[in-house]
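Reposting from the mailing list since nobody answered there.

I have sequence plus structure tokens for a pair of proteins and want to know whether others read the tokens the same way I do. The first protein:
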Amino acid sequence: MARGTKKVGLTGRFQSRYGLSIRKRVKNIEEVERAYHVCPSCGHKKVKRISTAIWQCRKCGTKFAGGSYVPRTDMGRIVDRVLKGEMSLEESPDKTLENIEGEET
């Protein structure tokens, strides 16, 4: 098996194949995917990916569904905020140019 180097890290296994920009993109995704994440139930940084979109805390054993590469997606955070009542359905999560210009004046 190929050994990763400092510069290319996890993508050292691809050697010179596929092009630099694609290997950089894969490296960024895999670094986030393989890192430990914070558990939503116990709060410890022990969550690891078991399978596609399935995550498990190694401390408390909680299994939950999330994103393919991160346990909490941006859309999942928005849904949680709507369910808690912090945000209404009419509010847009993305500010448009007109909204930003209207707020400044």
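The second protein, same order (residues first, tokens after):
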Amino acid sequence: MTLASLAIALHILSAVVWVGGMFFAYQILRPVAAQQLEPPQRLQLWAQVFRRFFPWVWVCIVLLPLSGYWMVYRRFGGMSGIGLHIHIMQVLGWLMILLFLHLYFSPFRRLREAVITEQWPEAGKRLRQIRFIIGVNLSLGLIVIAIAAAGRYL
């Protein structure tokens, strides 16, 4: 395997893990949890789901820029050698990373604390914030994937 194929594989796998995880959580797990579980159990579930998913997101937010910039500079000769679609993907990717950093260090931290201390209204408030941010990030991630898949054909 060449470095180029490794970079592309890591880049795509990182996007799949992050965006796919958000899609599953938002579109599949969330409605089922809301339908089947009472608020305390649902909030505990989400705190644990995020605790297991977010380390993977950390890996992704390191690998995506590293592999992406490696490809830009080693395969395409720098920023002047890439198309507009890659510039758009880069901007949206950094926005997604910034949103995740805010989510992780603010609402998620407060959700964990509220669940530990059984402050269910506060935990619910933080989960709503997390759900909104994940909804935005999921939308951005799907746009980035569409741009990645079709951008060079525009």
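Reply #1 (J.P.):
I read it the same way you do. The two ends are 30 Å apart (CA to CA).
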